Amino acid sequence: MQLAIQLIFAQVGAQVGIDQILDNGAATSQSIAEGWDKQWLDLLQNNTSNNLYGALTNLGIFFAVGTLLFFMIQFLKDLLSYEYTRPISALIWPFIVVILLSNSGKGSILSNLTLGLRNFLNTVNQQVLVTADANKMYQQALNMSVAEEVAGSFLRPCQSLTGEQQSQCFEKAAEKVNILWQKYRDTYGNKSWIIRLQNKINNIRYGTGIVSESSFNSLLGSTVQTSIKNFLVSLQYAFQNLIEATMLLIAALGPLAVGGSLLPVAGKPIFAWLTGFLSIGIAKISFNIIAVLTAAVIVNGPGQDANVDPDLMWFIIFLGILAPILSLLVAAAGGFAVFSAISNTASLVKERI
Questions:
Q1: What are phi and psi of 108, to 5 degrees?
Q2: How sure is the predictor about 339, in pLDDT bands with cuts at 50, 70 and 90?
Q3: 291, 141 in Cβ contact below 8 A?
Q4: pTM score, two decimals?
Q5: Burial letters for 205-234: b for 16+ Cβ neighbours within 10 Å, e otherwise?
Q6: Angle formed by the axes of helices 52-81 and 37-44, nearest 10°
Q7: Closest by alpha carbon to 203, among 191, 220, 187?
Q8: 103, β-bridge pairs
Q9: What is the predicted pLDDT for the residue at 28?
Q10: How do residues 200-210 score in pLDDT, each as one tens digit?
């Protein structure tokens, strides 16, 4: 009997680790961004003569040389048609391209400006997190949403046991769950939602007779629901890593956009590249604002009432699916506005020079 109970908890412990659950709840966009810092430095600053960014810079120079012919044809045409004014203003582009693509081996001006822009966006994002998440709203709401599943994973194996076996099973489960509650209290304080969940666990642990399946399901949910929540939590982490990977990809393509900017077209590729980079930054910041504000609603609402037993599955769905979609829509609208502003400003400057 004792061996059977130990085997049950060995299986549960292999599936759910308390430290792992807490780490998942504590993960933020900023910690994810810090994990990508080395990749940014390796790509944009370290040995850029021989790495991928150096190769793309050489390709951007090749594009610039290739498009210079088209630029000169348009330049001579404007020179004959517009009496010097417009051609002289257009001469600024070759100088911009040469300056941005000059590669010293420790990063070009373009790579340093790109890295600086990324750091600026991360600073703004960090300010958003620090200002709006002073009481760890996001991590607390996330842990609040999965706490029952974590506790349930320890208690669920006891459901099939009876009598003394079930009592011993509950005792061992309670020891593990109490460690979880203590870690929550160390992180967030003695919150009402922690007290509520602890009381529910104690009611099952000290209940008389066999605990009914309906009582277990009302507290613990099902294994399917636990798997869905884990998947959705992983999905929103995947989205945040996708944002970082996309920003890095756009940064790497910068030399190609600069090299193609000598084409005599109204919309310069460098404007589209800059717009794309800023749009991804807007998506990143928008996601964090949405997540933090929604978490504040939960923590300051049902999280403060020990008598309320809310179903927070909607919050996990919102984080994993709806918030990424909404942040991308906001980024698309913001990117269009940025592109229009840059294009109009460029046209205005061109007319004034």
A1: -85, 175
A2: low
A3: no
A4: 0.77
A5: beeeeebeeeebeebbbeeebbebbbebbe
A6: 60
A7: 220
A8: 108
A9: 60
A10: 777 777 764 44
Q: Where is average pLDDT lowest: 8-12, 39-43, 290-294, 307-311?
A: 8-12
Give the integer Cα–Cα distance in Å for 315 and 322: 10
How far is Cα of residue 247 from the mean position of the Cα atoms in its chain? 12
The radius of gyration computed from the CA coordinates of the chain, to the nearest angstrom, equals 28
DSSP letters for 230-298: HHHHHHHHHHHHHHHHHHHHHHHTHHHHHHGGGSS-SS-HHHHHHHHHHHHHHHHHHHHHHHHHHHHHH
* DSSP secondary structure, 174-229, as one string: HHHHHHHHHHHHHHH-S-HHHHHHHHHHHHHHT-SSPPPHHHHHHHH--HHHHHHH
Amino acid in position 94:
P
Q: What is the DSSP letter of 159?
A: G
> CA–CA separation, 155 vs 45, rounded Å?
52
Element (DSSP H or E) covering residue 336 = helix 323-352
Residues 232 and 253: their CA atoms lie apart, in Å, by 31
Backbone phi, then psi, for 259, in 5-degree steps?
A: -60, -30
CB atoms inside a 10 Å sphere around CB 256: 19
Give the tens place of pLDDT for each residue, 114-125: 999 998 988 888
> What's residue 207's pLDDT?
63
Question: CA nearest 142: which of 33, 21, 240?
Answer: 21
Structure tokens at 147: 């706490």
Residues 287 and 323 sit within 8 Å (Cβ to Cβ) = yes
Give CA–CA dist 159/169, Å, rounded.
9
Contact 283, 330 (CB under 8 A): yes
Residues 16-24, mean pLDDT to the nearest whole number: 48
Mean pLDDT, all residues of the chain:
74
Structural contact between residues 108 and 54, judged by C-beta atoms closer than 8 angstroms: no
